[in-house]
Amino acid sequence: MAGDDVQFGIELRRWRTRAGISLADFATAVHYSKGHLSKIENGLKHAQPEFARRCDAELDAGGRLAALAGATEARPRPVEVADDGEAWMMNLTGDGAGWFRPMGRREALALGAAAGFSMGVPARVRSVEGTAAVAFRRQFDQIRKLGQTASPGVVLPTLVAQTHTVRALTGQAGADESGQLFRLASRFAEFAGWMTQEAGDERGALWWTDRAVEMAASGGDRHFASYALTRRALISLYRDDAAEAIGLAQQAQRGAVPARILGFAAQHEAQGHALAGDYDTCMRALDRARPLLIAPAEEGEWSSPVLGTTNLDDPAAMAVGWCLLDLGRPREAAVVLDRQLESVPADALRTRARYGARRALAYAQLNEIEQACALVSELLGPAEIVGSATVAQDLLRLKRIFSRHLRTRAVQEVYPQLTRQLSATH
């Protein structure tokens, strides 16, 4: 790492001096102290990827500085669960805690499943033909709404139970209804994967995503596997693994894929390029994503329930603000995020917390600390309710910036609340 720090420092000084910018002026431009910059340029201090992308944008380095600092920063990939998950075991306690564990059927029997309460023999897992798919489809919409206003700990037990029930019903249904139920079960499983990721369990999120692909394939859905690649790309983005995210998103765009899936794949590819500091390629990918994501849904079962977010009228437009922040352009990002957040429904707490944290981070990076604190104060309540591990990542970045401004009154007011909330999340 020391050698990498020295190389980055040399390149940063070279780009800065070539641009004719003094150390003092550059410190003002990127909102860091001269001492901090001097240590980085001399290889005495490690440059965080966020700092490197900011310098890259300020010096118009075309992603070169960002690449030097970010190449080794991705968190380790989670070890995926090898179990076939034929049997599912869930434990719930009176205080709201619980756990879920997939296991093989033999292991479940060895643990003494007979000691539990029976819920009916398999032959009785039935419903009147045609009613189950309609009823569970409505329940899915309600659970998705609940996911916007409640923590994963509240949502996941219901999701697990519904996924299991819908999957079990496929064995007693006719061919047509069985296909519908498998496809619906895959959506429950995919959403369980997202909620598991929000709970901070990437390995569990990947397991649920794999189960969703299997169920979708059993129901004749030829496209869900491509959508699952976009989910994996998103998980990689939150690990700061730009290369893997780009590769997965590009893989999802191969072949005859429905527009909405192509749109999310292009969007996540753009976000990967933003992490890598590649502005031009990022913007081209976003240009591809936008018309695909606002296009009318195509006919077919794959489009119902709607894949991806239902709380953003223009997901790619919001992603522009997201990407601009990662590209080290916080002023442009703040303008976009301010505008886009106006159209997010008031009851979509999870979505508002996610993009609200990004907006606050943009203002913090601009050194508009009081405005950033005001925004954080507004979103701490919603963020605490939804308990999002992904939102917490940006809140942690905000805390690091605020720690440099502890003498500011606004920071003194919000910092203890932010610290308490992050302690509870981690």
From TrEMBL:
**Taxonomy, superkingdom:** Bacteria
Give the residue range of the signal peptide: none
State the Pfam families in the record. Answer: HTH_31
Annotated ranges, domain HTH cro/C1-type: 12-43
Q: By its UniProt entry, which InterPro entries does this protein fall under?
A: Cro/C1-type_HTH, Lambda_DNA-bd_dom_sf, TPR-like_helical_dom_sf
GO MF terms listed in the record are: DNA binding
From the Swiss-Prot or TrEMBL record, give the protein name: Helix-turn-helix protein
Protein species of origin: Amycolatopsis sulphurea
